[in-house]
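Title: Prediction job returns without error message
Component: structure pipeline
Severity: low
Priority: P3
Assignee: unassigned

Description:
Job completed but the reporter wants confirmation the result is attached to the right record. Sequence as submitted:
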Amino acid sequence: MKKSLQNFTIQKWITVLSVLLFIVKIIAYYITSSLAILSDALESIVNVIAGFIGLYSLYVAAKPKDEDHPYGHGKAEFVSAAAEGSLIIAAGIIIIYETIQNILQNTQIKSLDQGMWLIALTAALNYIAGLYCVKIGKQNNSLALESSGKHLQIDTYSTLGVLGSIALIYFTKIYWLDKVIAIALSFWIIYNGYTILRKSLAGIMDEADKVLLNQFIQELNAHKKANWIDLHNLRVIKYGPLLHIDCHLTLPWYMNIHEAHREIDALSDLIKNKFGDAIELFVHTDGCLDFSCAICTKTDCPARKHPFQQQLIWTLENLVSNQKHSI
């Protein structure tokens, strides 16, 4: 809950910043009539709209579980990211349209030196804010906040490109470069919108996050206990900042309920120490079978029927399958 409230507060200030930077860019466009600056300003419109969408989604995601939403409201973040990606793509298309219109009208650009200072200011503020958003978003497993941060970083890179282009036009007096740069920037914006949209749809569809799964598996292999004979049917699902993890854990068959529960607690503590407290862990325990002896490293087992042969290294391929392992 604390992480969700932190995410909401950060997004609130990001939204305010987006509005202010949009105003600055519009002023820069009004001063210069540069299409490249207009492209940057149009993307900032998306920043403002996406900021409000992200703000609302984080407000919803921060709500506690209820009868209608037993897994919480975290999926709202994926919807927000999908909307943001779609808006970024729309901004790229609008830039192409405006550039074509400008070619037909042949509008002259002016006062580029003043525009450069204003654009440079927005780039610096965007980069600092974006870096902070991505950092906190990753720490809190918030796709909405991370998407906002990446969007701000993308805006920074495109703004720096615009800034360099304006400087080139200012010194060379080759004014048609303004239109070429605007078109190139539009395709870059569309591509980045697609990547955000693709990631959000993956979250909505509960697509496996292989990077996260591999981090999880690496931690298990590094701290595996002798009683954890086998692990399989591993799944990790994101609900905003909440990670829902379930798996099947094979333990010695002779353990009583209390002993098995202690092993599950140890597994839970290991995961939370690595990934934070926003974890829901559901473990189904299985008793070991005769063929488990071949991969069991427990040296003091009173019921061993077969000798140990080799330790099984857990991998993404063998942990996600719904099958107990053997040699």
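Comment from assignee: result matches the submitted record. The chain has two domains: 2-204, 210-319.
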